[in-house]
Request: fold
Amino acid sequence: MASRIDSMSPEACRAYYAKIRSRSEARSAAIFNTAVAKALDPITAERDATPQEWVKAARAVRFPCGRCAGTGRFITGSLNGQPTGPGGDCFRCNGTGAQDDHDVRRNEEHDKHYIARHAFA
Reply:
């Protein structure tokens, strides 16, 4: 069964790739593009990648979580530069220490819901 990405035009794929890149946890666009190209290397060793393959790789590439700094543990505070508190699994990355596009989209929607819910409270 073909996915929605397979039926997208190259221009739509490029726009979707830019959107994924803008919301990623990567520190810069260059870092993001390098990570996606590295993820594409095994797939496209013999040929150039299609825009659809770039989008699929961009959705799958993972970057360290910005909330827990890649530890996977929720930090409640710090004392003299050392993390303190009971902590627990990080809710942003579900304790994995890294986020892909699915995690980032889930977190964005949660943040929008939280803001809308508390804006009129």
Q: What stands out?
A: Residues 63-121 form one domain. The radius of gyration is 17 Å.
